[in-house]
C-alpha cells in the first residue's frame, strides 16, 4: 500500500467525519479498520509456496516467506507495453484458507490459485473461472539480467557435475560419473581446487568413476563407533564424523548431501549469479545430462532430470537468457527398471539459436554435436512450425486497422507480401495464432502501435492444459505498485488492489446512503449487460 496515498485518504476521511459530528479518535479507528479489512474478501489469491523473483538480487522468494519476513523487494511485472519490468511490492497480505486450483500449462508451468485470480490473455485480464483448457495465457519469454554475483569457475563446474552426474549419498565424499575423458579431466581439475580434496579414478566398462575424498583411510577400525550409522528420523550420520574434504563440506553447506536423483535441486545461491556464471553452469549441466542433436530426426536440444524441482529451476534459468523451454514428463530406463523423469525441451528456432550463442561454448566434450546443431539451424528456413505465436484473436485488431486505413485485403496482401486468407472472416479455433514476424509486418504497414506492441512483446502465449481442484489452503496476495501484476511461477498474474477496494467500499457506501437515485442509475448503467448482477444488486438495494 502506498503510505502517502493512505495518509492523504485518512486525513480526508477523518476531516469529513469530524465535520459530520463524528469524534476524531473514533473516525481514525474506523479508517484503520477499513485498511485492515481490505486484506479480506476482495482478494485474488495464490498459495504460500508460489515463487516470485527478487528483481534486485535474482533470489527466488516464496510468497509465504515474503509475508513472514515483511521484506521490501522489487519483483518482476508486465507493463502496459507488454515489457517485463521491475516494480515494488507494496504489500503482502494473508487472505485465509480458500478453495484453490492448480493450473498447468503446455510449457509445464504450474501455479495454484483461487478461481477468481486473473490471468493475462490477448483479450485482457480474465479470472480463472472464465478460462478453460486450451485458453492461452501470458508467460514471460525473457527475464531481465537479474543476478550480480559470480563464482569461481571450479565451483560452477563441480556443482554442475554433481547435479547432473553425481552421487552425494556416500558418508565421507562423493562420486562423479562420465564416459567422456574431456569432461572427467575438467571435473578433476576443478574439484581438486577445493581444500583437502583428493581424487581417485576407476574405469569400468567404459565409465569413469571419480571419487572426491580426503585421501585418508576412512575404513572402520576395531572398536570404532560407526560414524555412518544413520539416525532413523533424520537419515543423517550420527555418533561421530568421518573425515571430509573441502568439496564435500561445501556441498553440505549447499544442502546437497544425501540427495538422490529425484531430490536434487539447484541451490538458492545460484539464482543470484550473473549471466556469465550462469552460462558456464548451464553449459556444464548440459554436458552431463543434456542432448543436442542426433543423426536421425531429433534436432531439438533438451535436458533430462529425475527431479521435478530441478526441471522447473533449469527452465527458469534458461528464461534469463531469453530461452523458452517446455517440461515434458518422461519414463526413463534405469537398471532394468522404468522410472519417471522430466525433459526440458528448447522451444523454437529463436530459443535454440540463443542457446547456441550464449551457452553452447560451455558444453564440454560435445563440440561435434554443437557444430552439427548450428549448421542445421543455419541451413533451414523460417520456423514455420513454431508454437511461438500471437493468439488468433489478434486478427480483430488487424481488421480494425484495415477499416481505419480503408484498404482492401488484396491491397494489403500486395503491399505486405502476406496471405490475407486467415485474416478474413470470424475468429475460429482451427488456427492457434500468427507468427510474431507476420504481425510485425502488418503493424509496420498499418503504422499500428498496438500490433507492433504484440509483435515485439516480452510475452510468450502459453496454453492451459489442465485445471485441477487442490482443496482448501492458506492463501496470500501481493500488491504491486503501478502495474498491479507480477510474475509468479513464471506466469503473469494480477494482484487485487486491496487498498483501492477499501477506499471504493467506503466511498460507495456513502454514495449509496446519501444519493440512492444517482447511485442506482450509475450502478445499472455499469452492469446492464449482466442480468444476473442486475437482479442481485437490486435485491441488495
From TrEMBL:
GO MF assignments: 3'-5' exonuclease activity; endonuclease activity
A Pfam family it matches: LAGLIDADG_3
One GO BP: intein-mediated protein splicing
The organism's place on the tree of life at top rank: Bacteria
Annotated DOD-type homing endonuclease domain residues: 207-323
UniProt keyword terms in alphabetical order: Autocatalytic cleavage, Protein splicing
Gene3D superfamilies: Hedgehog/Intein (Hint) domain, Homing endonucleases
PANTHER family attached to this UniProt entry: DNA POLYMERASE III SUBUNIT ALPHA (PTHR32294)
Protein name: DNA polymerase III alpha subunit
